[in-house]
Design a protein that fits this description.
alpha/beta; binds 6-chloroguanine; 226 residues; three-stranded mixed beta sheet; elongated
C-alpha cells in the first residue's frame, strides 16, 4: 500500500510515522508513506500557499494551484490514486469500518488542510472523500492524517505480531475490549481474576464476552442499539 500525504506543515506528519507500528509497517514493506510539503509546489518568490477568502471573513484559505500541482506530481510519479481524502471537521466521521475499507486500497492521497480550509475547487475536482476524526476542531489536518495512517497501517498483513489481535480490537466487532491483566498475579494486594489463570479456555472466553458486553452497555450504549 502507498500513502502520499500533502501537508501545509509536513514536519508534524513526518515525526510520528517513523515510530511505533507505522514505522514497523514501513520497514516491513507493507506500506510506503511519502510526505509532501505544499510549499514545494507553490510559485513565486514567497512560495505562498494561502490567501484571503473572496467575500471576506476570518482566516486564510489554501490556494488551489499548489494543491493541483502536487496532486499532478503524485499521479505522474505513482499513477492515479484510488482515493484523494481531504481531512476536515465537516467530513464523514472516521470509524473502524472506514479504516477496514481504506486498508484494502492500493494508493491513498491524504490532503491535510490548515488555516480556514482549502479552495472549494480542489474539493469539487480532486477530492473523492472528506473525513473527520471527531466532533471537535483541530487547527489542521496533519494530526487527523496521522490518526488515519495509524489505523490503516496496523491492518496491513504481517504488521501486528499476532495476526488475530487486530480482529479482537475494541470496535472490530462492535464491542469494547474486556479488561486485560499481566504478571504479577498479585500486586500490592490486588489480584487477577482467578478465571483468567484457570487455563479453562471456555470459561475465559465466557468471562471476556460478559465483560465486553457489560462495559459496552455502561460506556457506549449507542454501540449496542444497531
Ligand atoms: Cl479531519 N481536521 C480538523 N482541522 N479538525 C478536525 C478534524 C479534521 N476532525 C476533527 N476535527
Amino acid at each position: 500500500m502507498r500513502i502520499d500525504v500533502i501537508a501545509a506543515l509536513p514536519d508534524i506528519v513526518r515525526g510520528p510515522i517513523q515510530h511505533s507500528i507505522v514505522g514497523r509497517a514501513q520497514e516491513k514493506g507493507a506500506v510506503a508513506i511519502e510526505v509532501h510539503d505544499l510549499r514545494d509546489y507553490a510559485e513565486g518568490k514567497h512560495r505562498q500557499i494561502d490567501d484571503y477568502p473572496f467575500g471576506g471573513g476570518a482566516g486564510m484559505v489554501l490556494k488551489p494551484e499548489p494543491i493541483f500541482a502536487c496532486l499532478d506530481a503524485v499521479a505522474d510519479a505513482h499513477g492515479d490514486p484510488d482515493e484523494v481524502i481531504f481531512l476536515t471537521p465537516d467530513g464523514q466521521p472516521f470509524d473502524q469500518p472506514m479504516a477496514n475499507e481504506l486498508s484494502m486500497v492500493d494508493h491513498l492521497v491524504l490532503l491535510a488542510g490548515h488555516y480556514k480550509g482549502v479552495d472549494q475547487r480542489v474539493r469539487d475536482e480532486r477530492v473523492t472523500r472528506e473525513v473527520s476524526i471527531g466532533d471537535y476542531v483541530l487547527s489542521g489536518g496533519e494530526l487527523p492524517a496521522l490518526v488515519l495512517i495509524d489505523a490503516v497501517a496496523r491492518l496491513q498483513p504481517g504488521v501486528l505480531g499476532d495476526t488475530s489481535s487486530a480482529l479482537t480490537d475494541s470496535f472490530q466487532d462492535g464491542l469494547l475490549d474486556a479488561p486485560v491483566y499481566t504478571r504479577p498475579a498479585e500486586y500490592r494486594g490486588l489480584t487477577v481474576p482467578a478465571v483468567l489463570r484457570s487455563g479453562n479456555h471456555a470459561a475465559i472466553a465466557e468471562w471476556r464476552d460478559t465483560h465486553r458486553i457489560e462495559k459496552t452497555r455502561r460506556r457506549r450504549p449507542d454501540l449496542l442499539t444497531d
